[in-house]
Amino acid sequence: MKFKDFFKKENIVPFIKNTLIVMLGTFILALGTETCIIPSGLDIGGVSGIAICFVYANINIEPELVITILCWILFFLGLIFLGWSFSTQTIVSTITYPIFLYLINYLLNKFSFLSIIDSPSLESNMPMTLLICSILGGILVGAGCAVAFIGGGSTGGVDIITFIICKYIPRIKSSHMIFVIDALIILAGFIVNPIHDVVLAFLGILSAFIGAVVIDKVFIGSTQSFIAQIITDKHIEITDDVIKELERTTTIVDVEGGYTKKNQKMVMVSFTIREYSKIINIVAKNDKKAFMTIGRAHEINGEGFKPIK
Predict the structure, then answer these.
(1) Rg (CA), the chain
(2) How far is CA 216 from CA 63, 81, 168, 219, in A?
(3) For 151-298, where are the alpha helices, taking DSSP H only?
(4) What is the pTM of this model?
(5) What pLDDT, in 10s, does the model give residues 7-19?
């Protein structure tokens, strides 16, 4: 998209909408992290898990500051190895996530009654407090990531390392690599924890699992790949935008209306969850009268997706 076209209404409105959605997702993520994960010392992997490792190791640095530094380091790594196109998906969360963390931390210190870990009804029952933090934290973290995905963004973090590895070793599935990295962070937390608390480590794993379930089952489903079928008179314009904005291509099929007997074109395009909102915006911009169906794909192999084995 040319810079001058960005400020057109059909482009700027979806951009603002998606940015607000990503910010909402980032706020939910920060809420779960600051109210449940950090206060309870749960290592669920990711950048918050690394921050908890610093706490376990008695390194005198705020978890929020550790997360802030890591977010920006990982952002620039993504910019270098994955390019600006990917980094634009993480820039909103990279900027707002630390801000939301510090804001929520300030509110919790200002209004202590908002704190779960210091709740009067749970102060004599620490096991129940930790369990609640594990479950609620997992739900909020998973929901926050999923909402950010729906807005076409990404919360970044250690996922950037995963995408870098998968870029240069395409045989590795990103989902497997994410699991390995988070597992290593959780294991590191268990090792540096002076008391080697097995129960605390288990609750961290439980919280991470709940977060993954919320993303995969509730918001995304069993797959992150989709196929759109778009019946439109603007097939050339839509295809051009898909190529320019998504760096993907389309298949154009001749179709005939069953009732109208009218000959039209159907555009088929495969894409991932991160590109979901972009597809919607491209079609809406070019042809508001288009008829579009989007379905989940069980598996997509080939260029731009998982390689054919």
Answers:
(1) 22
(2) 27, 27, 25, 6
(3) 159-168, 174-192, 198-213, 235-241, 276-286
(4) 0.74
(5) 566 667 877 888 8
For residue 301, give both structure tokens. 């192999």
Alpha-carbon gap, residue 256 to 272, rounded angstroms: 28
Q: What is the DSSP string of 103-171?
A: HHHHHHHH-GGG-STT-TTTTT-HHHHHHHHHHHHHHHHHHHHHHHHHTT----TTHHHHHHHHHH-TT
Position of tokens 């057109």?
8
Identity at 93, one-letter amino acid code: S
Predicted local distance difference test score (pLDDT) of residue 3: 47
Tens digits of residue pLDDT in 98-133: 999 999 999 998 887 777 777 666 666 778 889 999
CA distance 99 to 29: 12
> What whole-number distance in Å separates Cα of residue 259 and Cα of residue 81?
51
Question: Bridge-partner residues for 256, per DSSP?
Answer: 263
Q: Which residues contact 198 (CB under 8 A, 6 or more apart)?
A: 190
Locus of tokens 């998973």: 142
Phi, psi of 111 (to 5 degrees): -125, 85
Domains recognised in the chain with CATH numbers: 3-220 (no CATH), 225-296 (3.30.70.120)
pLDDT tens, residue by residue, 141-185: 999 988 888 777 778 788 888 888 877 887 777 667 888 888 899
Angle between helix axes 174-192 and 198-213 (nearest 10 degrees) is 160
Burial class (CB in 10 A: 0-12, 13-18, 19+), 309: exposed
Calculate the alpha carbon distances from 210 to 10, 82, 244 in Å: 38, 29, 37
Residue with tokens 């910019």: 79
User: What pLDDT digit, counting tens, does each position of 60-108 carry?
Assistant: 899 999 999 999 999 999 899 888 877 787 899 999 999 999 999 999 9
